[in-house]
Write a structure and sequence with these properties.
The complex is a heterodimer.
Chain A (H helix, E strand, L loop, with lengths): L1 E4 L2 E8 L2 E7 L3 H18 L7 H8 L1 E3 L3 H16 L9 H6 L28 H7 L5 E4 L2 E4 L8 H16 L5 E5 L2 E4 L7 E7 L2 E11 L2 E7 L4 E4 L2 E4 L2 E2 L4 E2 L5 E6 L2 H25 L3 E5 L5 E3 L7 E13 L3 H7 L1 E3 L1
Parallel strand pairs in A: 18-19
Antiparallel strand pairs in A: 1-2, 2-3, 3-7, 4-6, 5-6, 7-8, 8-11, 9-10, 10-19, 11-16, 12-13, 14-15, 16-17, 17-18
Chain B lengths: L3 E4 L5 E4 L2 E4 L5 E4 L11 H9 L5 E3 L11 E3 L8 E10 L8 E3 L3
Parallel strand pairs in B: 5-7
Antiparallel strand pairs in B: 1-4, 1-7, 2-3
Classes of the chains: A alpha+beta, B mainly beta.
Chain lengths: 337, 105
Protein backbone atom coordinates (compact mmCIF):
# COMPACT_ATOMS: atom_id res chain seq x y z
CA UNK A 1 0.00 0.00 0.00
CA UNK A 2 2.68 2.48 0.94
CA UNK A 3 6.07 2.87 -0.73
CA UNK A 4 8.84 5.39 -0.69
CA UNK A 5 10.19 7.42 -3.61
CA UNK A 6 13.36 9.18 -2.63
CA UNK A 7 12.57 10.72 0.71
CA UNK A 8 8.84 10.68 0.11
CA UNK A 9 6.43 8.06 1.30
CA UNK A 10 3.88 7.56 -1.49
CA UNK A 11 0.39 6.07 -1.50
CA UNK A 12 -1.98 5.51 -4.41
CA UNK A 13 -5.60 4.44 -4.24
CA UNK A 14 -8.91 4.82 -6.08
CA UNK A 15 -11.51 7.28 -4.87
CA UNK A 16 -14.04 9.62 -6.47
CA UNK A 17 -13.77 7.76 -9.77
CA UNK A 18 -10.10 8.53 -10.18
CA UNK A 19 -6.63 7.67 -8.90
CA UNK A 20 -5.38 9.54 -5.86
CA UNK A 21 -1.67 9.89 -5.16
CA UNK A 22 -0.32 11.31 -1.94
CA UNK A 23 3.31 11.76 -0.94
CA UNK A 24 4.76 12.91 2.35
CA UNK A 25 7.92 12.94 4.40
CA UNK A 26 5.74 12.02 7.36
CA UNK A 27 4.54 8.61 8.45
CA UNK A 28 1.95 6.09 7.32
CA UNK A 29 -0.46 7.33 9.94
CA UNK A 30 -0.65 10.68 8.19
CA UNK A 31 -1.40 8.98 4.89
CA UNK A 32 -4.10 6.92 6.61
CA UNK A 33 -5.73 10.07 7.95
CA UNK A 34 -5.53 11.88 4.61
CA UNK A 35 -6.91 8.88 2.69
CA UNK A 36 -9.78 8.57 5.13
CA UNK A 37 -10.88 12.09 4.20
CA UNK A 38 -11.31 11.02 0.57
CA UNK A 39 -13.45 8.02 1.46
CA UNK A 40 -15.56 10.01 3.90
CA UNK A 41 -16.26 12.83 1.42
CA UNK A 42 -17.01 10.39 -1.39
CA UNK A 43 -19.49 8.58 0.80
CA UNK A 44 -21.27 11.82 1.59
CA UNK A 45 -21.04 13.85 -1.60
CA UNK A 46 -21.10 11.41 -4.52
CA UNK A 47 -24.13 11.80 -6.76
CA UNK A 48 -23.59 8.23 -7.92
CA UNK A 49 -24.34 6.78 -4.49
CA UNK A 50 -28.10 6.75 -3.92
CA UNK A 51 -27.75 7.07 -0.14
CA UNK A 52 -25.13 9.82 -0.10
CA UNK A 53 -26.15 13.10 1.50
CA UNK A 54 -25.99 14.80 -1.87
CA UNK A 55 -28.21 12.21 -3.56
CA UNK A 56 -30.79 12.50 -0.81
CA UNK A 57 -30.66 16.28 -0.97
CA UNK A 58 -31.13 16.23 -4.74
CA UNK A 59 -33.94 13.69 -4.50
CA UNK A 60 -35.90 15.29 -1.69
CA UNK A 61 -34.88 18.93 -1.98
CA UNK A 62 -33.92 19.03 1.69
CA UNK A 63 -31.68 17.20 4.13
CA UNK A 64 -31.67 17.06 7.89
CA UNK A 65 -28.41 17.43 9.83
CA UNK A 66 -26.11 17.92 6.85
CA UNK A 67 -22.45 17.14 7.41
CA UNK A 68 -19.87 19.93 7.57
CA UNK A 69 -18.43 18.56 4.34
CA UNK A 70 -21.70 19.04 2.47
CA UNK A 71 -22.21 22.55 3.82
CA UNK A 72 -18.64 23.50 2.99
CA UNK A 73 -18.95 22.14 -0.54
CA UNK A 74 -22.21 23.97 -1.13
CA UNK A 75 -20.68 27.21 0.12
CA UNK A 76 -17.58 26.81 -2.04
CA UNK A 77 -19.70 25.93 -5.07
CA UNK A 78 -21.79 29.03 -4.60
CA UNK A 79 -18.65 31.12 -4.15
CA UNK A 80 -17.33 29.64 -7.40
CA UNK A 81 -20.58 30.50 -9.14
CA UNK A 82 -20.33 34.12 -8.05
CA UNK A 83 -16.61 34.35 -8.75
CA UNK A 84 -17.11 33.23 -12.33
CA UNK A 85 -20.39 35.07 -12.93
CA UNK A 86 -22.13 31.73 -13.39
CA UNK A 87 -19.64 29.99 -15.65
CA UNK A 88 -19.03 27.48 -12.90
CA UNK A 89 -22.49 26.20 -12.13
CA UNK A 90 -23.01 23.04 -10.05
CA UNK A 91 -26.63 22.92 -11.19
CA UNK A 92 -25.58 21.45 -14.52
CA UNK A 93 -25.92 18.09 -12.76
CA UNK A 94 -29.48 17.87 -14.03
CA UNK A 95 -28.28 18.28 -17.59
CA UNK A 96 -25.50 15.75 -17.15
CA UNK A 97 -28.04 13.25 -15.92
CA UNK A 98 -30.24 14.05 -18.91
CA UNK A 99 -27.24 13.48 -21.17
CA UNK A 100 -26.81 10.03 -19.66
CA UNK A 101 -24.04 10.74 -17.14
CA UNK A 102 -26.02 9.19 -14.30
CA UNK A 103 -23.57 6.60 -13.02
CA UNK A 104 -19.88 6.21 -12.36
CA UNK A 105 -18.04 7.01 -15.55
CA UNK A 106 -16.47 3.57 -15.75
CA UNK A 107 -19.98 2.21 -16.44
CA UNK A 108 -20.67 4.49 -19.41
CA UNK A 109 -19.99 3.65 -23.06
CA UNK A 110 -16.74 5.37 -23.91
CA UNK A 111 -16.23 7.61 -26.91
CA UNK A 112 -12.47 7.64 -26.83
CA UNK A 113 -12.13 6.60 -30.46
CA UNK A 114 -13.67 9.60 -32.17
CA UNK A 115 -12.77 13.25 -31.99
CA UNK A 116 -14.06 15.85 -32.48
CA UNK A 117 -17.55 14.68 -31.61
CA UNK A 118 -20.67 16.17 -33.20
CA UNK A 119 -22.67 18.32 -30.84
CA UNK A 120 -25.76 16.80 -29.29
CA UNK A 121 -29.06 18.58 -29.63
CA UNK A 122 -31.07 19.56 -26.59
CA UNK A 123 -32.39 22.27 -24.38
CA UNK A 124 -30.19 24.39 -22.15
CA UNK A 125 -30.64 25.22 -18.52
CA UNK A 126 -33.02 27.95 -19.58
CA UNK A 127 -34.84 29.51 -16.67
CA UNK A 128 -32.60 27.91 -14.10
CA UNK A 129 -29.56 29.67 -15.53
CA UNK A 130 -31.40 32.96 -15.80
CA UNK A 131 -32.37 32.78 -12.15
CA UNK A 132 -28.87 31.84 -11.13
CA UNK A 133 -27.30 34.58 -13.20
CA UNK A 134 -29.14 37.09 -11.08
CA UNK A 135 -26.80 36.21 -8.24
CA UNK A 136 -29.52 34.67 -6.09
CA UNK A 137 -28.42 31.62 -4.14
CA UNK A 138 -30.04 28.27 -4.81
CA UNK A 139 -29.64 26.69 -1.38
CA UNK A 140 -30.14 27.79 2.20
CA UNK A 141 -29.95 26.53 5.75
CA UNK A 142 -33.13 26.45 7.84
CA UNK A 143 -32.40 25.28 11.37
CA UNK A 144 -31.15 21.70 11.07
CA UNK A 145 -32.10 21.53 7.41
CA UNK A 146 -30.30 22.37 4.22
CA UNK A 147 -32.82 23.18 1.51
CA UNK A 148 -32.49 23.48 -2.26
CA UNK A 149 -34.63 25.79 -4.32
CA UNK A 150 -37.39 23.94 -6.19
CA UNK A 151 -36.16 22.09 -9.26
CA UNK A 152 -32.50 22.56 -8.43
CA UNK A 153 -30.16 19.59 -8.63
CA UNK A 154 -26.52 19.88 -7.63
CA UNK A 155 -23.40 18.16 -8.92
CA UNK A 156 -20.50 18.86 -6.57
CA UNK A 157 -18.11 16.58 -8.47
CA UNK A 158 -15.23 18.86 -9.31
CA UNK A 159 -15.42 21.21 -6.38
CA UNK A 160 -15.86 18.36 -3.90
CA UNK A 161 -12.74 16.69 -5.21
CA UNK A 162 -10.80 19.93 -5.05
CA UNK A 163 -11.96 20.56 -1.50
CA UNK A 164 -11.00 17.04 -0.50
CA UNK A 165 -7.52 17.52 -1.90
CA UNK A 166 -7.27 20.74 0.13
CA UNK A 167 -8.42 19.00 3.30
CA UNK A 168 -6.08 16.06 2.82
CA UNK A 169 -3.21 18.48 2.18
CA UNK A 170 -3.81 20.11 5.55
CA UNK A 171 -3.20 16.74 7.21
CA UNK A 172 0.20 16.42 5.54
CA UNK A 173 1.28 20.03 5.64
CA UNK A 174 3.30 20.06 8.86
CA UNK A 175 5.62 17.17 7.99
CA UNK A 176 7.91 18.59 5.33
CA UNK A 177 7.59 18.06 1.60
CA UNK A 178 4.28 16.66 0.36
CA UNK A 179 1.72 16.64 -2.38
CA UNK A 180 -1.82 15.38 -2.80
CA UNK A 181 -3.08 14.69 -6.31
CA UNK A 182 -6.44 13.33 -7.43
CA UNK A 183 -7.03 12.85 -11.13
CA UNK A 184 -4.67 15.70 -12.00
CA UNK A 185 -5.98 18.15 -9.41
CA UNK A 186 -3.39 18.75 -6.74
CA UNK A 187 -1.97 20.67 -3.83
CA UNK A 188 1.79 20.97 -3.74
CA UNK A 189 3.46 21.64 -0.43
CA UNK A 190 7.04 22.47 0.24
CA UNK A 191 9.05 20.88 -2.59
CA UNK A 192 11.54 18.11 -2.02
CA UNK A 193 14.02 19.71 -4.37
CA UNK A 194 14.18 23.19 -5.85
CA UNK A 195 10.64 22.92 -7.22
CA UNK A 196 7.98 20.39 -8.13
CA UNK A 197 8.05 19.31 -11.77
CA UNK A 198 4.44 19.28 -12.90
CA UNK A 199 3.56 17.82 -16.30
CA UNK A 200 0.58 19.29 -18.13
CA UNK A 201 -0.92 16.52 -20.20
CA UNK A 202 -1.46 16.97 -23.94
CA UNK A 203 -5.22 16.60 -24.41
CA UNK A 204 -4.66 15.25 -27.91
CA UNK A 205 -2.05 12.72 -26.76
CA UNK A 206 -2.34 11.94 -23.05
CA UNK A 207 0.85 9.89 -23.18
CA UNK A 208 2.94 13.04 -23.52
CA UNK A 209 3.33 16.28 -21.62
CA UNK A 210 2.47 19.47 -23.42
CA UNK A 211 4.28 21.51 -20.78
CA UNK A 212 6.37 20.87 -17.73
CA UNK A 213 6.09 23.50 -15.00
CA UNK A 214 8.39 24.21 -12.11
CA UNK A 215 6.27 25.12 -9.10
CA UNK A 216 7.28 25.94 -5.56
CA UNK A 217 3.86 25.08 -4.12
CA UNK A 218 0.20 25.96 -4.40
CA UNK A 219 -2.67 24.22 -6.12
CA UNK A 220 -3.19 23.12 -9.72
CA UNK A 221 -6.30 21.83 -11.44
CA UNK A 222 -7.22 21.03 -15.02
CA UNK A 223 -10.35 20.46 -17.04
CA UNK A 224 -10.44 18.70 -20.38
CA UNK A 225 -13.17 17.92 -22.87
CA UNK A 226 -11.21 14.91 -24.05
CA UNK A 227 -11.86 13.11 -20.76
CA UNK A 228 -15.10 11.51 -19.63
CA UNK A 229 -16.75 11.39 -23.00
CA UNK A 230 -19.57 9.04 -23.85
CA UNK A 231 -22.18 8.23 -26.46
CA UNK A 232 -25.93 8.51 -26.01
CA UNK A 233 -28.39 7.88 -28.80
CA UNK A 234 -25.71 8.39 -31.41
CA UNK A 235 -24.52 11.74 -30.01
CA UNK A 236 -21.23 12.37 -28.23
CA UNK A 237 -21.13 14.05 -24.86
CA UNK A 238 -18.52 15.07 -22.35
CA UNK A 239 -18.84 16.16 -18.76
CA UNK A 240 -18.11 19.88 -19.15
CA UNK A 241 -21.39 21.63 -19.84
CA UNK A 242 -21.45 25.32 -20.70
CA UNK A 243 -24.22 26.86 -18.54
CA UNK A 244 -24.70 29.57 -21.15
CA UNK A 245 -25.84 27.06 -23.74
CA UNK A 246 -26.69 23.96 -21.76
CA UNK A 247 -24.48 22.01 -24.15
CA UNK A 248 -21.08 20.37 -23.81
CA UNK A 249 -18.35 23.00 -24.15
CA UNK A 250 -16.72 23.47 -27.54
CA UNK A 251 -14.50 26.47 -26.84
CA UNK A 252 -11.22 24.69 -26.12
CA UNK A 253 -9.67 21.31 -25.48
CA UNK A 254 -8.37 21.82 -21.96
CA UNK A 255 -7.46 24.38 -19.34
CA UNK A 256 -5.17 24.39 -16.34
CA UNK A 257 -5.35 26.88 -13.48
CA UNK A 258 -2.97 27.65 -10.63
CA UNK A 259 -4.48 29.06 -7.44
CA UNK A 260 -3.92 29.07 -3.69
CA UNK A 261 -6.39 26.21 -3.14
CA UNK A 262 -7.39 23.23 -5.22
CA UNK A 263 -11.10 23.99 -4.97
CA UNK A 264 -10.44 27.47 -6.36
CA UNK A 265 -8.16 26.10 -9.09
CA UNK A 266 -10.85 23.61 -10.07
CA UNK A 267 -13.46 26.34 -10.42
CA UNK A 268 -11.12 28.59 -12.40
CA UNK A 269 -9.98 25.83 -14.74
CA UNK A 270 -13.56 25.02 -15.70
CA UNK A 271 -14.39 28.67 -16.28
CA UNK A 272 -11.21 29.27 -18.28
CA UNK A 273 -11.97 26.31 -20.51
CA UNK A 274 -15.48 27.62 -21.20
CA UNK A 275 -14.08 31.05 -22.06
CA UNK A 276 -11.57 29.52 -24.46
CA UNK A 277 -8.23 30.89 -25.69
CA UNK A 278 -9.55 34.41 -26.17
CA UNK A 279 -11.10 34.80 -22.73
CA UNK A 280 -9.62 32.22 -20.39
CA UNK A 281 -6.06 33.48 -19.88
CA UNK A 282 -7.10 37.07 -19.17
CA UNK A 283 -9.94 35.89 -16.98
CA UNK A 284 -7.43 34.03 -14.82
CA UNK A 285 -5.12 37.01 -14.77
CA UNK A 286 -7.87 39.35 -13.61
CA UNK A 287 -8.61 37.05 -10.69
CA UNK A 288 -4.98 36.99 -9.64
CA UNK A 289 -4.54 33.42 -10.84
CA UNK A 290 -2.39 31.93 -13.58
CA UNK A 291 -3.02 29.26 -16.13
CA UNK A 292 -3.32 28.09 -19.70
CA UNK A 293 -6.04 27.21 -22.18
CA UNK A 294 -5.29 24.67 -24.90
CA UNK A 295 -6.99 25.75 -28.13
CA UNK A 296 -8.64 23.35 -30.52
CA UNK A 297 -5.53 23.38 -32.69
CA UNK A 298 -3.32 22.41 -29.79
CA UNK A 299 -1.64 25.77 -29.16
CA UNK A 300 -1.27 26.78 -25.52
CA UNK A 301 -2.59 30.23 -24.63
CA UNK A 302 -1.33 31.45 -21.27
CA UNK A 303 -2.00 34.20 -18.79
CA UNK A 304 0.62 36.97 -18.75
CA UNK A 305 3.84 35.89 -17.07
CA UNK A 306 3.01 32.20 -17.16
CA UNK A 307 6.04 31.49 -19.32
CA UNK A 308 8.24 32.12 -16.30
CA UNK A 309 7.01 28.81 -14.84
CA UNK A 310 8.03 26.73 -17.84
CA UNK A 311 10.58 23.97 -17.55
CA UNK A 312 9.65 22.80 -21.02
CA UNK A 313 7.06 23.46 -23.70
CA UNK A 314 5.76 26.52 -25.48
CA UNK A 315 3.10 29.03 -24.45
CA UNK A 316 1.67 32.12 -26.10
CA UNK A 317 1.01 34.72 -23.44
CA UNK A 318 -2.21 36.56 -24.14
CA UNK A 319 -2.34 40.21 -23.16
CA UNK A 320 -5.39 41.44 -25.03
CA UNK A 321 -8.44 40.67 -27.09
CA UNK A 322 -9.39 41.99 -30.47
CA UNK A 323 -12.57 42.09 -32.46
CA UNK A 324 -16.28 41.85 -31.79
CA UNK A 325 -16.39 45.19 -29.98
CA UNK A 326 -14.57 43.35 -27.26
CA UNK A 327 -13.73 46.20 -24.92
CA UNK A 328 -17.28 47.50 -24.81
CA UNK A 329 -18.82 44.06 -24.69
CA UNK A 330 -16.63 42.95 -21.85
CA UNK A 331 -17.16 46.12 -19.89
CA UNK A 332 -20.92 46.02 -20.41
CA UNK A 333 -21.19 42.48 -19.19
CA UNK A 334 -18.79 42.89 -16.28
CA UNK A 335 -19.97 41.50 -12.99
CA UNK A 336 -18.44 42.86 -9.81
CA UNK A 337 -18.03 40.76 -6.71
CA UNK B 1 17.82 25.71 -18.47
CA UNK B 2 17.63 27.53 -21.76
CA UNK B 3 14.56 29.67 -22.13
CA UNK B 4 13.69 31.56 -25.26
CA UNK B 5 11.32 34.46 -24.99
CA UNK B 6 9.92 36.32 -27.95
CA UNK B 7 8.36 39.69 -27.38
CA UNK B 8 5.79 39.97 -30.08
CA UNK B 9 4.82 43.13 -31.86
CA UNK B 10 5.63 45.53 -29.08
CA UNK B 11 8.69 46.47 -27.16
CA UNK B 12 7.01 48.59 -24.56
CA UNK B 13 3.66 49.34 -23.10
CA UNK B 14 2.01 52.47 -21.89
CA UNK B 15 -0.81 52.84 -19.46
CA UNK B 16 -3.41 55.19 -20.83
CA UNK B 17 -6.59 55.78 -18.90
CA UNK B 18 -6.46 52.38 -17.31
CA UNK B 19 -6.10 50.58 -20.62
CA UNK B 20 -2.87 49.02 -21.70
CA UNK B 21 -2.03 50.14 -25.17
CA UNK B 22 0.72 48.33 -26.87
CA UNK B 23 2.98 50.27 -29.11
CA UNK B 24 3.41 48.96 -32.57
CA UNK B 25 6.35 48.94 -34.82
CA UNK B 26 8.86 46.30 -34.06
CA UNK B 27 9.41 42.98 -32.52
CA UNK B 28 12.31 42.16 -30.34
CA UNK B 29 13.65 39.00 -28.91
CA UNK B 30 14.92 38.30 -25.47
CA UNK B 31 16.85 35.28 -24.48
CA UNK B 32 17.03 34.25 -20.88
CA UNK B 33 20.18 33.08 -19.24
CA UNK B 34 20.86 29.48 -19.97
CA UNK B 35 23.45 26.84 -20.31
CA UNK B 36 23.16 23.52 -22.05
CA UNK B 37 19.71 23.51 -23.59
CA UNK B 38 19.55 25.01 -27.04
CA UNK B 39 16.33 26.62 -28.25
CA UNK B 40 14.48 24.07 -30.28
CA UNK B 41 11.72 26.17 -31.76
CA UNK B 42 12.58 28.10 -34.88
CA UNK B 43 10.49 31.10 -35.94
CA UNK B 44 8.82 28.97 -38.60
CA UNK B 45 7.71 26.50 -36.00
CA UNK B 46 6.33 29.26 -33.85
CA UNK B 47 4.41 30.55 -36.82
CA UNK B 48 2.95 27.14 -37.47
CA UNK B 49 1.76 26.85 -33.91
CA UNK B 50 0.07 30.18 -34.27
CA UNK B 51 -1.53 29.35 -37.59
CA UNK B 52 -3.29 26.34 -36.17
CA UNK B 53 -5.43 28.69 -34.11
CA UNK B 54 -6.16 31.18 -36.87
CA UNK B 55 -8.14 33.33 -37.10
CA UNK B 56 -8.21 33.70 -33.34
CA UNK B 57 -4.66 34.91 -32.99
CA UNK B 58 -3.38 38.26 -33.98
CA UNK B 59 -0.10 39.45 -32.70
CA UNK B 60 1.11 42.72 -31.47
CA UNK B 61 -1.45 45.39 -32.12
CA UNK B 62 -4.41 47.20 -30.61
CA UNK B 63 -5.46 47.16 -27.00
CA UNK B 64 -6.99 44.77 -24.58
CA UNK B 65 -10.41 44.93 -23.06
CA UNK B 66 -10.02 45.64 -19.38
CA UNK B 67 -13.08 45.95 -17.18
CA UNK B 68 -10.82 46.67 -14.25
CA UNK B 69 -9.74 44.90 -11.13
CA UNK B 70 -12.31 43.08 -9.11
CA UNK B 71 -14.62 42.34 -11.95
CA UNK B 72 -15.03 39.63 -14.49
CA UNK B 73 -16.79 39.81 -17.79
CA UNK B 74 -18.49 36.81 -19.29
CA UNK B 75 -19.08 37.07 -23.01
CA UNK B 76 -21.75 35.01 -24.74
CA UNK B 77 -20.84 31.46 -25.64
CA UNK B 78 -19.49 30.85 -29.09
CA UNK B 79 -18.24 34.38 -29.66
CA UNK B 80 -14.87 34.20 -31.35
CA UNK B 81 -12.23 36.83 -30.74
CA UNK B 82 -8.69 37.28 -31.81
CA UNK B 83 -6.14 37.57 -29.09
CA UNK B 84 -3.05 39.70 -28.76
CA UNK B 85 -0.02 37.64 -27.87
CA UNK B 86 2.75 39.52 -26.14
CA UNK B 87 5.31 36.79 -25.59
CA UNK B 88 5.95 33.34 -26.92
CA UNK B 89 8.01 31.42 -24.39
CA UNK B 90 9.65 28.23 -25.51
CA UNK B 91 11.77 25.83 -23.50
CA UNK B 92 12.98 22.61 -25.11
CA UNK B 93 12.19 19.37 -23.31
CA UNK B 94 14.79 17.91 -21.02
CA UNK B 95 14.93 15.36 -18.22
CA UNK B 96 14.16 14.69 -15.46
CA UNK B 97 10.57 13.59 -15.90
CA UNK B 98 7.71 15.33 -14.12
CA UNK B 99 6.93 14.15 -10.60
CA UNK B 100 3.21 14.71 -10.93
CA UNK B 101 0.83 15.35 -13.84
CA UNK B 102 -2.30 17.37 -14.43
CA UNK B 103 -4.69 17.23 -17.35
CA UNK B 104 -8.29 16.97 -16.32
CA UNK B 105 -10.19 14.02 -15.04
Amino acid sequence: MGSSAGELRVRRFRSMGTTVTMATQGGEDLLDDAAHIFFRVEERLSRFRPESELSRLNREGRLENPSPELLAALAVAEEGFKLTAGLFDPRVGRLLRGFGYDRDFSLLASAEDEWPPPLPQGAGLGEAVSAGASGRGWWRVEGDLVVLDPGVEIDLGGVAKGLTVDWAAEVLRDEGAFFVEAGGDMVLGEPLEECWRVGVEDPLDPSRDLLVLGLGGGAVASSSVTKRRWVLAGAFYHHLVDPRTGQPATSALAATALAPTCARAEVLAKAALLLGPSGGPLFLHRLGARGVVVGKGGSVFASPGFGDLLLSGEVLEVVGVLGGGSREAWAASAVTW
Amino acid sequence: MRKETRVVGAASAVLVGGVWGYLLGHASEERGAGTARAPSVAPAAVGAAEAREAPQVERGRAVSGNPGRGSVAVPPAGQRRRVVVRRVVTVPPAPPAPQVRTGGS
